[in-house]
Amino acid sequence: MTETRPKRPLLAQDDEENSDLIYDLADSIASVEQCLSTLATKTPAQIADSLEATDQAKLLTLMAYTLHSLYFGENPLEHPVKQELERVREYMNKIKSATDKPSMKLNVAAANRFINHALTDQDEEKGGEEKGEKTDEKEQGWEEPKKVATTNKQRENKKRKK
């Protein structure tokens, strides 16, 4: 469907920039016509049946958005079609968020549990040593970690030590 460009420009003037833009527009229109002719040969149900579930959802929301955006003749800001477009946009965003790959997120609560558990294990190891065998942590280059929060297990260990 792509036509070869004629040797003479479409414009009467010899304006290269405008003629290139016109040829690009003609190519784009030909491409859109080709896509539309493909879509026009099948019903929306036939097209949707040949797609996966996420692609079906994308197609249906795109069709709804396209049909609603074609409405003109009245002020679209005051017309109910604007509400419909917003509703369709929400569905499009839901589909996009469902199909996007999840990003890595830090679970702060789980990280705190790991840290508290590690601190509890260190306290238990220290509690098993003799008092005379303990060495100064600062001499070894270790500093006592800040306690984030005490857990039930840490409280029970402190009660046992007393």
Automatic annotation (TrEMBL):
Region (Disordered): 117-162
Major subcellular site: cytoplasm
Chain intervals with Basic and acidic residues compositional bias: 128-147
GO biological process: maturation of 5.8S rRNA; regulation of gene expression
Coiled coil: none
Gene Ontology cellular component list: cytoplasm; exosome (RNase complex); nucleolus
Keyword presence, Ligase: no
Keywords linked to the UniProt accession: Cytoplasm, DNA-binding, Nucleus, Receptor, RNA-binding, rRNA processing
Localization, UniProt: Cytoplasm; Nucleus, Nucleolus; Nucleus
Gene Ontology terms, MF aspect: DNA binding; RNA binding
Family: Belongs to the C1D family.
Job of this protein: Plays a role in the recruitment of the exosome to pre-rRNA to mediate the 3'-5' end processing of the 5.8S rRNA.
Assembly and binders: Monomer and homodimer.
Protein's name in the database: Nuclear nucleic acid-binding protein C1D
Organism: Planoprotostelium fungivorum
